[in-house]
Amino acid sequence: MSAIPDTSERGVAGAGLSSTGRGHELRHKETANGDFAGDLLEVSMGPQHPSTHGVFRMDVTLDGERVVRLKPVFGYLHRNHEKIGENTAYLASMPYTDRLDYFCSLTNNWAYALTVEKLAGLQVPERAEYIRVITAELTRLQNHACLGGFLLQDMGASGTPLMYAFRERERILDLFESLTGARMMCNYMRFGGCRCDLPAGWLEQTRQVVDEFPRFLDEFEALLNENEILMSRTQGVGVVPRELAINASITGPMLRAAGVNYDIRKVDKYGIYDRFSFRVPLGEHGDIYDRYMVRVLEMRESLKILNQALRDIPEGPIVDPKARLRGFKPKPGEAYGRIEAPKGELGFYVISDGSTNPYRYRVRPPSFINLTILEDMCLGHEVADVVIILGSVDIVLGEVDR
Amino acid sequence: MLGEGIIKGMGETARNFFGSYVKEDRLTTVQYPEERLPQKEAARNFPFLVYDGKDWDKGLRCVACQICEKECPPQCIYIVKDATKKPDHIGKMQFQAKVFDIDISVCMSCQICVEVCPFEAIKMDVEYELSTGDRFGQLLLHKDQLAKSNDYYRKIHPTEAAEVDARMGAEKAKAEAKAKPAAATSATPSKP
């Protein structure tokens, strides 16, 4: 902690999107009748702060309890993902994508596989498409359930909602383990399909988990939806206006909470999403409560998709016979593939020069781009609100820093 | 009424709390060292090398083709190929690895070495209770530590091992069928 001296311009230039012209406010303030109002206080929250969801730092400038400036600082978890992707074979990047958003490794796998399939012109067999939808929607369920838990943890509800969410997540992770061999670092999708077929009895186990999930959701909603503390902490806090959300290219539940009907599952209809009937829940106010509710409702829609997919899944091959594991060389060209990951639009941009390694490999991570308007959401709120505003963005630092 | 939502929520926590005494699905905690969950068959941890027969050194399926070394994403495999062929467990002359090391402090258990291996020689282990006091030497596994028998593989991944055995048996039968006429034709000229 340190008080900012009068003349310091430190950090003002890099304060983010909306810092223009606010420099003069940062000198210490005098009230209208000339009384001395006190210094501003600069607090460095993180990178080891428990509520920053990883190694993320915010330089928060406070006037009393109010936030007057906020500067996000990230890069503590930078692992050179994109450069490594250019220096290894196409397949070797697949396990690294697990480590982007380590909560949702299967959707990351899917986004990368989709991009390379576009690039190389591979056809995914029917059964593999169904398996992809099932695993992606299970991933969405566990991500949103956990996020609800984390949000409440940030608000001071120590443990209870988080542990209930984790209990359900364990069941889904068990399914992932029996399918892919790993609970979180699944490395399951391959170009043109999936790595292995479903083990015996997996579909029945999944059906059971899916059937029991609504009970958890009912309890979770009864526990939280009408809770007065939750409502007063979240309603009207961290509002993202529709225009700002669109201009800052926010995606995912954050965008939909602001009332914009944009879901890539509906817009792009990638994979086989055009076969399932589901709705896209929309918020109205764009505040934290709407973001929470949009996620809860999205879980209900995911359950609908899962029920349809588990009913319709056909038998058949799981990988395109043209796909090759070793010596994979797509034709020169470029492709951008995107999917609706639980956090928003996850895109991969890959350029091929015809060799075994990609010429360019770029990730468009949803949580990084959703984070760009953090300052706009936090200004004017109290420092305790910053924590839950950050929590409601749903970031994973593995993806932000890459 | 103010506080109604909170009271309702408390009801849920009470239901979960008391439920945990009577219902299995409300209490999912496992008292780890005493109780253990059964391991999933697909579980994977670090790779090991499979050998056939009794002698691990001779029976290793690995022929040091170095494909896994090349394909490994974090480059944790180190192989030195032997210069001369040696007899394997059934007496067939084969190239073998002089050095085969896996640095498990680098390995990320992605299973790509297993997928690319054309000889079914490297498979994933399920051992998870591993520890060492040494940060460097003990984490570099050598050939003798990596070698594990095919029986062990059958025990930890029964379904997968049965598939592999069937595939290898079929390949062997095919090779033998091919070798027989070849042997017959090559043998004919020498006949008087």
Please describe what this structure looks like.
The complex is a heterodimer of chains A (402) and B (192). A 4-stranded antiparallel beta sheet of chain A has the order 1-2-3-4. Chain A is built from 15 helices and 9 strands. In chain A, a hairpin with a 2-residue loop joins strand 5 and strand 6. With 402 residues, chain A is of the alpha+beta class. Chain A has helices at residues 81-87, 94-98, 105-120, 126-155, 160-180, 202-224, 228-234, 242-247, 253-257, 264-267, 288-312, 366-370, 374-378, 383-393, 397-401, and strands spanning 2-3, 41-45, 57-63, 66-73, 189-190, 193-194, 333-341, 344-352, 358-364. Helices cover 44% and strands 13% of the residues of chain A. Chain B is of the alpha+beta class and 192 residues long. Chain B has a domain at 47-168: Alpha-Beta Plaits, CATH 3.30.70.3270. Helix content of chain B is 39%, strand content 15%. Chain B has helices at residues 4-22, 56-59, 67-71, 112-116, 143-146, 150-156, 158-187, and strands spanning 47-51, 77-81, 86-87, 93-94, 97-103, 122-124, 140-141, 147-149. A 3-stranded mixed beta sheet of chain B has the order 6-1-8. A 3-stranded antiparallel beta sheet of chain B has the order 2-5-7. In chain B, strand 3 and strand 4 (93-94) form a beta hairpin. In chain B, helix 6 (150-156) packs antiparallel against helix 7 (158-187). The longest helix of chain B has 30 residues, at 158-187. Chains A and B meet through helix 2, helix 5, helix 6 and helix 7 of A and helix 1 and helix 4 of B.
